[in-house]
Amino acid sequence: MSLIVQKYGGSSVADAESIKRVAKRIVETRKAGNEVVVAVSAMGDSTDELLDLAHQVTPIPAPRELDMLLTAGERISMALLAMAIKSMGHDARSFTGSQAGMITDARHGQARIVDVTPGRVRDALDEGAIAIVAGFQGFNRGTGDITTLGRGGSDTTAVALAAALHADICEIYTDVDGIFTADPRVVPKARKIERITSEEMLELAANGAKVLYIRAVEYARRHGVTLHVRSSFNNNEGTIVYNATDEQNRERPVEEPLIAGVATDLSEAKITVVGVPDIPGKAAQIFNIVAKTGANIDMIVQNVSAAATGLTDISFTLPKSDGQTVLTTLTAEQTDVGFASLQYDDQIGKLALVGAGMRTNAGVSAKLFTALYEAGINIEMISTSEIRISVVTRADTVNDALRVVHTAFGLDADSDAVVHGGSGR
Amino acid sequence: MSLIVQKYGGSSVADAESIKRVAKRIVETRKAGNEVVVAVSAMGDSTDELLDLAHQVTPIPAPRELDMLLTAGERISMALLAMAIKSMGHDARSFTGSQAGMITDARHGQARIVDVTPGRVRDALDEGAIAIVAGFQGFNRGTGDITTLGRGGSDTTAVALAAALHADICEIYTDVDGIFTADPRVVPKARKIERITSEEMLELAANGAKVLYIRAVEYARRHGVTLHVRSSFNNNEGTIVYNATDEQNRERPVEEPLIAGVATDLSEAKITVVGVPDIPGKAAQIFNIVAKTGANIDMIVQNVSAAATGLTDISFTLPKSDGQTVLTTLTAEQTDVGFASLQYDDQIGKLALVGAGMRTNAGVSAKLFTALYEAGINIEMISTSEIRISVVTRADTVNDALRVVHTAFGLDADSDAVVHGGSGR
Hints:
The structure is a homodimer. Chain A has a domain at 3-251: 3-Layer(aba) Sandwich (Carbamate kinase). Helix content of chain A is 34%, strand content 24%. Chain A has 13 helices and 20 strands. An eight-stranded mixed β-sheet of chain A has the order 3-6-2-1-9-11-12-10, sandwiched between helices. In chain A, a hairpin with an 8-residue loop joins strand 4 (102-104) and strand 5 (113-116). In chain A, helix 2 runs antiparallel to helix 3, helix 5 runs parallel beside helix 7 and helix 12 packs across helix 13 (398-408). The interface between A and B is large, with 39 and 37 residues.
C-alpha cells in the first residue's frame, strides 16, 4: 500500500461539477489500494473575491483578519470535496490547516512552516478514511491565530504533508500536462519533460516557469519528496521532479540530458545606477539600501570601471512591482552614495537555459550566444549558475529567443504539444 | 465600565457597506466606555448559498462536512467586521466558535452548548480590544470537530457569551425595532413592547413571533441574561427581555400588564386520529409512535368519548414539515393501535395570547372567545398554559382574529407602527 498526497488547485475545483470529477479521481486512487491525503485550494477565483470584499471594507485590511477571511475559501472547497467523496461511499474527513497540524510562524499572509504534526490526518488514514486538508493555511501556536502561507501555499501544504507522512509521492494536479521544455503557448514543439531534478526545477521556477512554486520545490528537495506534476483533466503521466542526491535515485542513475528546459520571464525590470564611484563598499551600500525595501533582486551586473573617470555602472533586475519603491528609496540616498543618475527599463525579457548536464559541458554558453546572435537578438545582461545561464534581451524579442534556443539545443518535439486552458496555480 | 454583548444578524451585515455601518455602531459603543463583544452571523444569504453548493455536490451532505462548510460563512463576516473596526482606529480581534470557547456536544447541525470558556475573548477585552465572535458555531472536544448550533444559533452564541462573561446586557440587533404586541405587518396599530419577561417572550416565540429564537430566550432565562432587542438601522430603544425572578428585577417590580402580546403561526398542520379505542394507554401509544419521528408536537386535544361507541378522536398540531413523516409512521402502526383513520389538515392558523398578568385574572379566556365569536371566527382547538391561551382557527381567518383580539385587549397604539424590511433572523 502506498501513501499518496494529491494537491488540487483552484481551477480543478472551480464548481460543483469539477469537485465531483476530482472526487472521482481521488476515489479511484483509494480503490487502487493507496492511502490518500488531499491538499486542496479554494474554489476558482474565490480567494480573489474575498480579497475584493476586504478591500471594499478597508483599503489596508489587518493581516490577522485577512488570514481569517481568506482561510474560509479552502474550508468551503475541502468540505464540499469530502462530502462528494462520502456520497460515493468512501469515508473522507476534511481538516483545516490547524487540525492537520500545519504549525507556522506568526507572519500573517506569508507564514513559514515551522512544524508539521499531522496526527489527526494519520488517524483518519489508519481508520480507512481519505483525508482532505485545506491548502494554504496554518496555525501559530504562540498567538493561537490562523495564518496563511502566501503564494503557492497549497503546493507547499501538499509537499509538507508528504514529507511529514513519509508519502511515497506527492502528486500536484494542475491544468497542464506537466513541466515542458518551454512554454507550449510560445513554443508549439515544446516537449513534456518526463523526469527533472529538483535543482533544475528550482531554476526553471525561479526563472519564470509558472506551474510549480519555487517554495514548494525547495521544500520537496530539502525533505526528499518526489513530485509528480500532472493534469487533473486527463490520466496522462506528467513530470516527475526528483531529488538527484537521494539514495534511491543514486542507485538508479538516469542519463542526465544536457538541457532540461528553457524558461522566460517578462515580469522584471532593470535599474541601472549610473556613475557610481569605483571605490570599495559602494555596491554593498547600494544593495543594503535596496534590501531595506524588501525587493527581490535577481541578476546583478557591474561594468568594468572606466579607469579614466573612476566611475562604474551597476545594473540589476527586479520584479516590476518593486520598481517604483526601489527608485524612490535610491533617489533619497543619491547624495550619500554619490551616483550620477538612475535608469529604469521595464521593457526587458529574461531567458534562462537550465540543465544539470551543463555542469560538465563547456560549450553550452557558446552555443546559446551563437543561436541568439544568428537570430539577430541582442544580449544585454548575462548571469550564470552551475546549472543555468540567464540572459536579458529586449522584451519583444524574448519569445523569438525562446524558439531559436529551444531548437538549437535539440529540444523540439516531433509534433506540437496540446495546450490546455490557462496556467496552473 | 459595562460589558455589552451585541449580536448582528445576516441582514445587518449583508454587504461591505452594512458591515462598515455596523462597525461604526460597535465603535460608538466602545467609545462610550464599554467593553464590547460581538456575535455575528454570516453575510446576508451566504449560508443558503453554501447549502445550495452542498446540494449541488450531493443530495445528502455528510453532517460533519456540512458544518465545516457552513462555518465558513461567519468566518468571512467576522473577519471583515474586525477589519472594518481596525480601519477606524480601534483594536478588534475575530474569534471562531472554537477560539471563543463555545464547547458543544457532537450533534452536527444542531449541537447543544455544554461549556463556554471564553478565555481568549476575555484576554482581548483586557487588552482593550473589541472581540468579534463567529455566531452559530462551536467545537466538540471529544472529536475535535467543528459543529453548528442550528437555527437561531447566532442568538444563542450571543446569549451564551453574555452569560459566561457576566455581561451587563446582551443586545440583539435585527431589522425591526423590537418585540411588538403583534406582527406590525398584520396589525398596523401594534405597539412596541418596552419590557417583557423572558417567560412571556418564550411563549410568544414558541407561538410564532419570529424576532427571537426560543432557544436563545431559554438560555437567557436560565442564566439570568437581560436581552435588549433593537434595530441596527436606527438608535431607538428596543424591547428589554428580563428575568422576572432575578433579584434585581424583584427589587424593582414593574406593574405587570394583563397581556404582553399576541402571536400567530401559520406553519403548523393538524392531524386527527379518528376512532381510537377509549382504553388506558392508547394516547401514550400514539405519542410514543409520533415521538420516534422526532416531530415537535404542539397542541393536543382529545374529544370526550362517545360512550356508545367506546371510541374517541385525538387531534394534535405539528410543523407542516413533519406532517408526511408522522402520517406514514402512524399508518404503519394502524392495526396495532386500532384507530379507524387519519385526517390531515394543513389549512389551520394558530393564535396565542400571552401575558403574565392572566395568571391572576380570570376573565381573559372569556374575553378572547367573545371577541372571536363577535367577529364570526370559529375556534377549532384550545390550549392553555399559566400565561398563555392558544386557539386554532382556519388559516384564512387568523389575521382577522389577530386584529380583533389586539383591539379587544386594548393593545392598539394611537398611531401605526413603522414597518421595516423583512423579519429578523
